[in-house]
Amino acid sequence: VGAVVNNDPDVNKYLKVVFIPNYNVSVAEVLIPGSELSQHISTAGMEASGTSNMKFSLNGCVIIGTLDGANVEIREEVGQENFFLFGAKADQVAGLRKDRENGLFKPDPRFEEAKQLIRSGAFGTYDYAPLLDSLEGNSGFGRGDYFLVGYDFPSYIDAQAQVDEAYKDKKKWIKMSILNTAGSGKFSSDRTIAQYAKEIWGITASPVS
Among 60, 83, 117, 201, which is most exposed with the fewest C-beta within 10 angstroms? Predict the structure, then answer.
């Protein structure tokens, strides 16, 4: 993907694909404060978003993501207008999977086009069968698009278009960034530990003299 994008004369003036190997906390300490948009795209209800989204938001980075895990709370705290939302809701997932099993799902043509581009070898002559097989068919282990990528794809494209428009307005984007930091106080370790102490451990703070 990087080779294709980075060698496209129409695109590479504006966009680069860079892979950072051995990602760890030390790398994150440099990368996260310098980020403007971070993607957290796990299927709603899977609780797979982790906590890195909180770190990005605390550092003024705007999130594009699904209603999964901490994304739900981040969106509530920073404001819906300062979060780019896409994808199914958790209470829709079971029904959407059942529709898929029954052959009722009709994929967006752009999703089919993206799969065909991958299949063509445009991004290298690798074995893409495991990836593509997981997105196709109606049911079966490793098939049937269990994570609803095909369903989420159109709204993801729409959300990215919203990102493009917002980013053109520098003042608006800076405001969104500031409000992400300002709204992220709930995710501090102090608040988290205090709540755990009260609600789970049943202990109270002891003043230190």
Answer: 201
